[in-house]
Design a protein that fits this description.
By secondary structure, the protein is an alpha/beta fold. It folds into 2 domains: about 240 residues, no CATH class; about 120 residues, CBS-domain (Roll), CATH 3.10.580.10. Helices cover about 60% and strands about 15% of the residues. It has a 4-stranded mixed sheet. It has a 4-stranded mixed sheet with strand order 5-6-7-8. Helix 1 packs across helix 2, helix 2 packs antiparallel against helix 3 and helix 6 packs antiparallel against helix 7.
């Protein structure tokens, strides 16, 4: 879902990150508030004041999204779920869980926490606006408070739509989970509802764009995102269910191709990369594992210098970023691959290389499990 992310701070031990796409929406929200919403609501205010209100409104919006996501995260932590972090991106924010909730109750309460937080925040902001208006406060602060009251109400309402992975979809999933006692079935149904709602938004977006309304583009983009997120969420559940509890040893190749540390980069390319087509190779010297070398490291060396450099010079030492233990859960290996972008990891026991685990081998098992175990519609 995410591209390059920047960690900005930690709160309650949870890292808050910004996806680079967030910059796009931050600029657009500020611009639309400063040039559209606030000038139309308060025509007597100067352009400079409207820009200040636009910045304040944008900051308040993303603060509201963080409040919403932290509500999810803290309830999830209460039920033993590990939260890897909260990421703000172009369509809002998401609290990233390492696994699915362990019970329908945990799912329901975790999902309900976000909309409840947004509703409370909407009431507080709109109440501030009403109190300020009666007290005769200046228009800029009460205008921003009114906007935040309205936007938090809309945020709660949108998230309560019963399509996965929206909060309303998670609430519905918890109910279906209790009814059928089948998380996979409940996820499939709510994901289909989410994907269907995404199609509705896409249709409305195209219709509004044909009418010349710029807002139609946002409906289209949100619909595309929601449809993709619904499909991806179901696929991720299948992957987790297939891999949870499975040891890395089951998937690893116990006779991996290794590269001598003394080999030149040219020998690595000609004798290994072009022959075996892997993107990562363990590096050994006299039977001792030194680390690994990847295509990324090779690309950093000019082609005319390949004969002059050895694999030892560019090898990356062993670390939790490129190794797993043979008895580790396969989901840990998948999480590491997702975090680093590498599709192959060294399987290490002590200081010894015992194998290689590759993403394609894990996905192969997933395909077979889905084909054999997926219940018919």
């Amino acid at each position: 879902m995410f591209g390059k992310r920047i960690e900005v701070f930690k709160l309650f031990g949870i890292a808050v990150r910004l996806d680079l796409s967030w910059v796009i929406i931050a600029v657009l929200v500020t611009w639309s508030l400063a040039r559209g919403f606030f000038p139309s609501e308060y025509p007597n205010l100067s352009r400079a004041i409207c820009w200040v209100m636009g910045v304040a409104g944008a900051v308040g919006l993303f603060g509201s999204i963080l409040f919403h996501e932290f509500s999810h995260a803290l309830v999830a932590r209460r039920y033993g779920l590990v939260i890897k972090g909260i990421t703000l991106f172009i369509f809002g924010g998401v609290a990233e869980m390492e696994r699915e909730p362990s019970s329908p109750k945990a799912e329901f309460l975790m999902a309900a926490a976000g909309p409840i937080a947004s509703i409370l925040l909407a009431m507080a902001c709109y109440g501030t606006y009403l109190a300020g208006e009666r007290a005769g406060w200046p228009e800029p602060p009460i205008g921003v408070a009114r906007y935040l009251g309205l936007i938090n109400g809309l945020l709660a309402a949108f998230n309560l739509i019963p399509g996965f992975p929206l909060d309303g979809g998670r609430l519905l999933r918890s109910v279906l989970w209790v009814w059928k006692r089948n998380l996979r079935w409940a996820t499939r149904i709510t994901s289909q509802i989410g994907a269907g709602f995404g199609l509705v938004l896409i249709f409305l977006g195209i219709l509004n764009m044909l009418r010349g309304e710029f807002a139609g583009l946002w409906w289209l983009l949100i619909g595309l995102f929601l449809r993709d997120a619904a499909t991806t969420s179901y696929q991720q559940l299948l992957l987790r269910k297939a891999l949870e509890g499975e040891p890395v040893r089951r998937f690893m190749i116990s006779t991996p191709v290794t590269v001598p540390a003394s080999s030149s980069i040219e020998q690595l390319v000609e004798g290994y990369i072009y022959r075996h087509h892997f993107k990562m190779y363990p590096v050994v010297e006299d039977g001792t594992l030194l680390g690994c070398v990847t295509i990324r490291q090779v690309k950093a060396i000019p082609r005319n210098e390949w004969k002059q450099h050895t694999v030892r010079e560019v090898a990356t030492p062993c670390s939790p970023e490129n190794t797993v233990h043979p008895e580790d859960d396969a989901m840990k290996a998948l999480s590491t691959m997702s975090r680093t972008g590498d599709s192959r990891l060294m399987v290490v026991e002590g200081n010894q290389l015992v194998g290689i685990i590759a993403l394609k081998d894990m996905l192969g098992l997933l395909s077979l499990k889905v084909e054999l175990e997926e219940p018919k519609a």
